[in-house]
Amino acid sequence: MREKTADSLVNASTAPACMPGETDADPRSTSDGDQESDCRNICADAEGDGQADAPERTIRVCADKSDDVLTIDLWHVYSDQAYELGVDPGLVKDGVEDHLQRYLSEQIERIGEGARLVRREYPTAIGPVDIMAIDGNGRHVAIEIKRHGGIDGVEQLTRYCTLLNRDPLLAPVRGIFAAQTITPQAKVLAEDRGFNCLILDYESMKQTESDALTLF
């Protein structure tokens, strides 16, 4: 990825002067070699034209779907340099649901003393449960994780628990609704349906290392 910097005094204006793809040369430019254009960008360099009140460079950008043209006059260029920045790493998001799920599975005791992890992404006929665990009393626990917990998340957990409680090998299954923030409405609905709410402190979880060995 290359970044080009230019410190300049800029005068910008718009005018319906050309259609996309047209070449509109700056009348103040005297050299064909000073002009560079494609279907969207048309640049004309006015250096060396002998006019003291003319900009050093003029850049015109034509809109793709209209006849609007943006004209930018560069009156003085203080620096024009290119720097090699290497490969663009792209956008890396921190604190997404996958991170919360991984940290909670490694620190499953946050749901209660004696808890054990069954697995992450526990499969069901209507989609995977974020985390399936067994609490200190030997009861299965389905955990739904959200960054920001709302009513939709509680409804999703309700569907999972309803289905899982039909399996005699798992029942009774209780639910935990875990999120970094939980709306008051979601908290009321979750507690009304017998679910526990768990607030996840991402920064604290990220700084806690787990020595437990897990398959998932």
Primary descriptors:
elongated, about 20% helix, about 220 residues, disordered N terminus, 5-stranded antiparallel beta sheet
Shape assignment? elongated
- Portion in beta strands: 35-45%
Structural class: alpha+beta
Major pleated sheet = 5 strands, antiparallel
Low-confidence stretches: 1-50
Strands of the widest sheet, in order across it, are 1-5-4-3-2
Number of helices: 4
Order of helices and strands: EEEEEHEEEHEHEH
Tell me, rounded to a whole number, the average pLDDT: 79
What is the strand and helix layout of this fold?
Blueprint: E1 2-15, E2 35-37, E3 41-45, E4 57-62, E5 69-84, H1 97-106, E6 116-122, E7 129-134, E8 140-149, H2 151-164, E9 173-182, H3 184-192, E10 196-199, H4 202-206
Parallel strand pairs: 8-9, 9-10
Antiparallel strand pairs: 1-5, 2-3, 3-4, 4-5, 6-7, 7-8
Helix pairs in contact: 2-3
Can you offer a commentary on this structure?
With 216 residues, the chain is an alpha+beta fold. It has 4 helices and 10 strands. It has helices spanning 97-106, 151-164, 184-192, 202-206; strands spanning 2-15, 35-37, 41-45, 57-62, 69-84, 116-122, 129-134, 140-149, 173-182, 196-199. The strands form 2 sheets. A 5-stranded antiparallel beta sheet has the order 1-5-4-3-2, with no helix packed on it. Helix 2 runs parallel beside helix 3 (184-192). The two termini are 36 Å apart.
